[in-house]
Amino acid sequence: MTNRDPQPASLPQLHGVLVLDKPSGPTSARCLSMLKRLGQKKIGHAGTLDPMASGVLLVLLGQGTKIASHLLADGGKVYRGQLRLGQETDTWDIQGQVLREAPWQDIDEEAVRAEVARWQELTEQEVPAYSAAKHQGQPLYKLARKGQAAPVKVKRMEISQAEVLDMHLPFVRFRVACSSGTYIRSLAHSLGKRLGCGAVLTELTREYSHPFGLDAAVSLDDVLADPVRMVRGLRPIAEALPHWPRVSLSADEARQVRNGHAVPCHEEGTRALLMENGCELALARRQDSPSGPCWTIVRGLWN
Question: Which residues make Cβ contacts (< 8 Å) with residue 282, sequence separation at least 6?
Fold first, then answer.
């Protein structure tokens, strides 16, 4: 990735989702900072990636920032990665300080395959000390860098697929499909503990972040070199919420929604993406009222 800073462009504020192929190296926040200089003052993302990791980073622009929590709630992830047996580091990846080394030569390949498959049985995991999770308002990584102790945090997660792709010990390549917020570093660390030799994550690529894969992504370098690529690669909000049924409103109903009022619900389902003339207007949930079912506004998407 280029080190030169992008020059400000005259792009207007865009609205939607940019599927970015994040390079290994910069933080997710740094990537957003570069895009912000291209005229995108209202910007966010759905699911951070560690600096070492590459792959799908969903960048939310303009009104797209309003759907972040819904993308995270709905969205599973798929990762391709590599771990190394025989080491433990403070960050649980190869970029950390080595705390312990242990022999791995007696580890059986079938034992490794079995432990990777066991990830699918896990329902919770330990949160890495070097992570953005917070304790008393402070990110854990800041406390760790200061040498300050913090309680061990455990979070729930779900693994729907886990397989070994290739193995040349001490290196193991794998693919895992998981719930949003899963720490792949923690999976590698726990595998190393179970095998008794330690393990660290050495490579990681996010191949999919619901509902987009790498095939829909544009590279950061390409966008910085030609900001028009951001416009071409922009996905509408509706495309980012494929499981939200579309409900078209009349002009009068749309006016009521903008004024904060519920509108009659004639459709099945518990949630909907309300549309006006083919454009996203609001996220809504079904609610019963004395006059019958209605759509109540969860989040307005108009300017």
Answer: 257, 273, 274, 297, 298, 299, 300, 301, 302
